[in-house]
């Protein structure tokens, strides 16, 4: 006869949930600070450059 493994599944469930939340949060921070903000800064610099060129052409 095979013994029930309910206690093991419950422990594994909480381990899986905590790892998923931890890895998801770490991945989110890595994306936000590693990729998103750098792209946003590049975009803002481009629009500032366009605005300066437009102001120089108008003056």
Automatic annotation (TrEMBL):
<keyword id="KW-1133">Transmembrane helix</keyword>
<protein>
    <submittedName>
        <fullName>Cytochrome-c oxidase subunit VIIa</fullName>
    </submittedName>
</protein>
<keyword id="KW-0812">Transmembrane</keyword>
<keyword id="KW-0496">Mitochondrion</keyword>
<keyword id="KW-0999">Mitochondrion inner membrane</keyword>
<dbReference type="GO" id="GO:0005743">
    <property type="term" value="C:mitochondrial inner membrane"/>
</dbReference>
<dbReference type="GO" id="GO:0004129">
    <property type="term" value="F:cytochrome-c oxidase activity"/>
</dbReference>
<keyword id="KW-0472">Membrane</keyword>
<feature type="transmembrane region" description="Helical">
    <location>
        <begin position="12"/>
        <end position="32"/>
    </location>
</feature>
<dbReference type="GO" id="GO:0006123">
    <property type="term" value="P:mitochondrial electron transport, cytochrome c to oxygen"/>
</dbReference>
């Amino acid at each position: 006869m095979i013994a029930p493994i309910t206690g093991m599944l419950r422990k594994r469930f909480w381990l899986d949930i905590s790892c998923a939340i931890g890895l998801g949060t770490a991945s989110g921070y890595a994306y936000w600070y590693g990729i998103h903000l750098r792209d946003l800064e590049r975009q803002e610099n481009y629009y500032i450059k366009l605005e300066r060129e437009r102001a120089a052409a108008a003056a």
